[in-house]
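Bumping with the actual sequence this time:
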Amino acid sequence: MGRKARILIADDDHAILTALKARLEQINAEVITAEDGYSALARAREHRPDLMVLDINMPAGDGFSVHERLDTIEGMSKTPIIYLTGDRSERLDNLAFQMGAYEVFHKPCDMKLLQNSVIRALQPKAA
């Protein structure tokens, strides 16, 4: 049997971070957390996650800047990214998908739907 899927969640809202971590651990994933963009990049370099859930608006580097910098980490350029945001503007959603987002969820989001999206995004890795 292979290793657990490794997921990195970055969000500056501690309550969301805690809830998401608990939800994604239910699918038997290893979950790493970060509270800002700088920490997210450092943890991505260290742990090489299979998928990232990024808040778009964070201190020390937003989700978009983290996504852009993944190309500088060997093997991370194709990592699926699911964005979280409190901003419901169509412009931001469009930008997220132009960046290559797997999916975008608006806060407060349905944790079960997000969990299902993570499972779908990880499916190719399990094949």
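The tokens above came from a reply further down the thread. The chain has one domain: 6-126.
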